[in-house]
Amino acid sequence: MRALVLNTVNKSTTVQDVPNPEPGPKEILVRVRAVALNHVDYMNAVKPLAAQEKRVLGSDFAGEVAQVGEDLVGLDDPRAKVGARVSGFVQGASSVNDRPGAFAEYVAIDYDLTWNIPDKVSFEEAASVSLGAMTAAQGVFERLQLPSPFSETGVSEQRSIREDEPVSVFIYGASSSVGLYAAQLVRLSEKTSDRKIRLIGAASPSKHALLYDAPYSYDLLVDYRDPQWPEAVRKAAGGEGAQYAIDAISQGSTVEQTDSVIKSGGKFAIFRAPAAGNFDIAKLKTKPIFGAVWEALGVEVQYHGGVTIPANTKARAFGAALYKYLGSGVESGQIKLYPNPVRVMPGGLEEIPSDGFGLLSGSFKAVQQDQKGHLGPVSGEKIVYVVS
């Protein structure tokens, strides 16, 4: 099969012929139809984390089941059927230990770590969902512990919040991929608990119309460039700040700014560790909770310097529950979580290193040369490539 392979020695990425993966007993082999790009794919291409000389890149994918593992034959699960439309994410070159990548014609993955794609959702749209949605779900339900529609993990709101007190949730980076999914999950939590949530977000004014509309349905949005936005958020949240906050960017000053709008005793979810996000946790009044999205895969994750995240069965069970929920509306035609807006790029795997990674880096010269075309600045959308 053809795959986008990272050479960690010379930091090059080229399309090469590699052996087709063989599905394990409880795995499905997916013929990849579309892939979506994430910043982690780009970062680990230019600054390789992988220890092997060659690794297949890529995380997010969508496609059709081409083969099922021996233990899945006859299993009564729609994902374990040849021809099923499924989506998921793998680790690509985002660890020291060898893991499969998505930027290829085929990928093997545990069947229950994929979700069935509704007929109304294209492969290109579905490819944008899995990594961002899992990241957001871990923040909303695992870290903030808001009530969840699919798992017992998030079971209660803060006990300090009175039943008659409005619940406020603030999301910084509301138009980012994670932010778009987080808002939808907050609204799903609201329906689950039957408790009104006042949703407040920070984003560019150019995205406010999108965010005020369903399925995000923000109550208030502020311009993240306005230096007075923290005061506006605190005021909207009753004067003392929001009980819950998510920083979907989690980089430098965004963490401190988000921290400034959290009510005393509130909860704070971020998605980068202090070293990676370049912030000082000692300066924050609310200790943020963070973790690695890869935990949902249920495998050990190794990083440089001997840092190891052990396999987490609880995180994997949460991930499997999310995926089962996402695919639960297929028969009725219901979309449980709406995909990010997508930008489908011309070309295939060969164009990812130049065009795709160029856009993610923010330094691609064509960004200034093609403001209206496929190489224009990326904001509030996911970069997607068709594979087959």
From TrEMBL:
Residues 8-337 form the Enoyl reductase (ER) domain. It holds the Pfam family ADH_N. Keywords: Oxidoreductase. Coiled coil: none annotated. One of its GO terms (molecular function) is oxidoreductase activity, acting on NAD(P)H. The keyword Oxidoreductase applies. Belongs to the zinc-containing alcohol dehydrogenase family. PANTHER family: HYPOTHETICAL OXIDOREDUCTASE (EUROFUNG) (PTHR45348), ZINC BINDING OXIDOREDUCTASE, PUTATIVE-RELATED (PTHR45348:SF7). This is Enoyl reductase (ER) domain-containing protein. It comes from Clonostachys byssicola.
